[in-house]
Task: structure prediction
Amino acid sequence: MTARIFVPGDSGALALGADKVARALADGLAERGLDAEIVRNGSRGLYWLEPMVEVETERGRIAYGPVAPADVPALLAGDLLAGGDHALRLGDPEEIPFLKRQSRLTFARCGITDPLSLDDYRAHGGLAGLEKAVAMTPAAIVDQVTESGLRGRGGAGFPTGIKWKTVLATTDARKYIVCNADEGDSGTFADRMIMEGDPFVLIEGMAIAGIATGATKGYVYLRSEYPHAIRVMDAAIAIARTAGILGASVLGSPNAFDIEVRVGAGAYVCGEETSLLESLEGKRGQVRAKPPLPAHKGLFGRPTVVNNVISLASVPVIMDKGAAFYRDFGMGRSRGTIPIQIAGNVRHGGLFEAGFGLTLGEIVDEIGGGTATGRPVKAVQVGGPLGAYFPRALFDTPFDYEAFAAKDGLIGHAGIVVFDDTADMLKQARFAMEFCAVESCGKCTPCRIGSVRGVEVIDKIAAGEAPDTQIALVSDLCNTMKFGSLCALGGFTPYPVMSALTHFPEDFRPRAMNEAAE
Ligand SMILES: Cc1cc2nc3c(=O)[nH]c(=O)nc-3n(C[C@H](O)[C@H](O)[C@H](O)COP(=O)(O)O)c2cc1C
Ligand code: SF4
Result:
């Protein structure tokens, strides 16, 4: 039997030199006359160990990492194909604590299968959900998704089943499924990872959404900065079409469904669902006023489901294993699992899928292993550029939509960016206002003008100009932005700004005052 060696081909691993490692392995195997197939899998999400090479042995998979091209000759000489010893040998990847502690439902196959092998996909449980869905009524599918408790993973946490029910209830002859793959949040990469590592699961989820709501066409809105994800999704859609998973008769059923990838230029605001729809229609990405909701009047004025990649990719396992299985994970009203993305100044950066409920401290200190610099953690920003900065004092907060909201924070797309004690929180607050000013679509005044004024006022605080007055002004401005903005870009920018001010007031005092206080 030809041995199989797995070298991740996703953009995270590529950035760390996976292509060079794959080439060195191919050359080394040829030189030694060894028979082995190199499979370019997705990443398991342990990025500090990438490029992580795995070999399939009689005792299961054995991992090595992080592998550099220079390590390859010694690895091959040490009987890599049989899982031989080497300083980089990690053993059974599933036993690495970072992986072992996870509950991988949505990412069950990521890093294990060949992303573009439909046979691999089926062999690892793929298509079981869609097969069940084609035998069900749309209403029964919607009920199952509703009962699972799945909430949108794009940021707002809106119940997916309710959104689908609204679209199902419309009578329009043409409806759409739009997958939001814009993934603009800082420190997030779950959408990209699954599109590159297990694209069929997204296709399967979108097909189920189509059958459940009566939509026959789906679009994946991807950003141009994700060229690998675009390539993999395009290839997977073509394979799915040939195999009859997409097309006039999904898995031989009377349901038609097809998908197209559309590429956006990469504006943060184009991740906001109505702006995204404008962009998909070929217009400038500017936010639409709601109502009407996209579920009633969305793409080209038709009823449209807009869902995040992870929301849609979580549906197949729900259909396959049942609503109760999925709902059993999590806490409170946050049901199921969430792929937490740990990034920034952290020792063990990567993707960690677990049921809701881990505390922020467990995620940062135990799973993430603290900072990469070894200095104390000062703050973590949760939920992207519009998320709050949490200090250590809030590390007992469980990862749960309501628990975070109660502490003036948000989970968003579950990105966590870690900062050590050298971070200047005034600069971070200024950055939040500046980001809002740069990315604002310009439709409403609190955001368009407020963010520019916000930068100016924070600059005055930094310069020590009447700081107390300016701080009161920033708080007032944040209030106006929070309650007066049309969408969450302007409406949520106050979260990072006010959390920085509230939890790290010393960073907003002139340096001379801090020195005097010490
Ligand atoms: C400024 C802004 C940017 C957003 N960016 C994204 C994004 O990149 N991806 C995403 O899925 N949702 C994003 N959202 C949320 C979407 O508007 C929408 O709530 C989501 O796509 C709905 O899907 P879900 O219910 O599956 O989460 C953004 C919202 C705002 C206000
Ligand atoms: S809050 Fe900002 S991004 Fe949102 S609609 Fe208003 S101007 Fe546009």
